[in-house]
Amino acid sequence: MGNIILIKPAKVDLGELRWTCNEDLAVDDLLSFFAENTGGTVYKAARRLNMPFSTAYAKFQKALRRGLLEKYEGKVRLTARGALYCLCKGCAPPQYPLVQLKTRWDTSAPLWQVGALAQVVLAALRKLGMSLYLAPIEKLCTTSSMLLLVSGRSSILRLSEILEIPERIFTAALPLFAEGLYRIGLAWDTGDHYIIGNSIVVCKAPCLGVCRLQKELEDFRKKLEEFMTAPP
């Protein structure tokens, strides 16, 4: 490994985060119901919103075509795109769409990390000129791959500058970004840290107490040497 660059994520409050996008389908009221009611139905949404069923169903079809909602086991739920759309439009208190985004990405990361990565992702879509409706963000691994595309040949640490995002927000998002890279074999999980490339080490959470990085790196080097010297 080269000279280690250790990144310690900043813990942010949800109130510090800003989620913006240009998409507007006029389905905010319907999405607000599904943000707060996981596994609801269009019929229940129409009743709760005091909306004619035909109107609710038309909005459902519109959101379905754009990939904001999906049918699942006879019910309806937000997709990752739908959760991001809700964050942008303020359809519901942010913790609701963030919980659903966390579920779609299948991660145990805290909501503030999910929210920070959501802000980075939306900034990346604006940089790429890509519609939220077409974004490859339904899985965490494809989301991280897309961010690599934005960084190009630059270090991923320049993404904060490239996307014009406060460094504090970007570092808060890095552990979850690294988790996505790990899922496609582009990062290593050493326990309390992720290693990206040959020099970037990302703490999974703000370090509290004793940091185990030194021992983790020693164990990682041993495993790497064993792998390199193993017979074919």
Automatic annotation (TrEMBL):
What is the name listed in the Swiss-Prot or TrEMBL entry for this protein? Transcriptional regulator containing HTH domain
Q: Which species is the source of this protein?
A: Thermoproteus tenax (strain ATCC 35583 / DSM 2078 / JCM 9277 / NBRC 100435 / Kra 1)
